[in-house]
Amino acid sequence: MTMVWSDYRVCVTGGAGFLGRVVRKQLLERGVLPGSIIVPRRPEYDLTNERDVRRLYQRERPDVVLHLAAEVGGIGANMTNPGRFFYANMAMGLHLVEQARLAGIRKFVHVSTVCAYPKLTEVPFKEADLWNGYPEDTNAPYGIAKKALIVMLDAYHRQYGLNSAVVIPTNLYGPGDNFDPNTSHVIPALIRKFSQAQLNNEKHVVCWGTGRASREFLHVNDAAAGVILAAEIMEVPLPINLGTGREVSIADLAYAIARLCDYSGEIIWDSTKPDGQPRRCLNTAVATALLGWQANTPFIEGLTKTIAWWRSSQSL
Fold first, then answer.
1. What is the pLDDT of residues 10-22, one digit of tens each?
2. Are 207 and 254 contacting, i.e. CB atoms less than 8 angstroms apart?
3. Among 45, 57, 117, 142, which one carries the catalytic annotation?
4. How far apart are CA 3 and CA 158, in angstroms?
5. 134 belongs to the catalytic site
6. Cβ contact 282:216 at 8 Å
7. 37 alpha carbon, distance to own chain's centre
8. Which CATH homologous superfamily contains domain 5-174+216-245+280-297?
9. pLDDT score of 315
10. What is the pLDDT of residues 223-247, one digit of tens each?
11. Contact 208, 75 (CB under 8 A)
């Protein structure tokens, strides 16, 4: 469908979160009216509860749903909360999609996860590789819950005609990220660790794993643009990778963040802690071909601005 955004009411689940805040900002820039963006909050709408989701759709009458909400964290959080992460993410998606069908939602956009890919996937990951094996053990419950919704959307499109889109962003970062030490991902965790070590003049910093695992990092602004383009262009839930195509080892990442935080002490690797998936890097040819999308934020520039945001937030 042609998207004239001023004509639509848009529900952004997770709209108060890291990615959601940027998506909302870009929606306004695209022409969505300020009063037409709906951000469900848990005290009023528990998205794991079917009745609450039905009430959300009936009361707010969205035309488009951008499903960004997730219960998620780094390796430690995934290992501590595997049951909760599976249930919460599966229940949210299940109810949001089914009630979208019943409510006649015009477009449903699902933001999936790179954790859905099999543990041993040839790099760079291609969308067809999603179905070639079991995810990495530490994040499998979360990854499988999010991957199951791709199957659900495909089934609903074929049987009920529900128009939908699916994007799979790689690891996100940027200003406004989650820096909670219990649930943050690797970039905010390292920024916090090295910033505090520099401030306290610590002689060494201990990091999880061997440092040999690799990841790919996408700036939140680029990810938000990909989500909105998918909403505008796609009607079939064909999975679409969003990434940079640049693979970075965790060791190189740690040394880069240490340098940018002006930390010159020793980095010690605790190999008793898990590395998680050995390698991650996405092939983004489908996103370029179907959406005309590519990442535009240089990595060191993005890291520098993220560190500056974190330090500024701590001085408020």
1. 999 999 999 999 9
2. yes
3. 142
4. 22
5. no
6. yes
7. 20
8. NAD(P)-binding Rossmann-like Domain (3.40.50.720)
9. 63
10. 999 999 999 999 999 999 999 999 9
11. yes
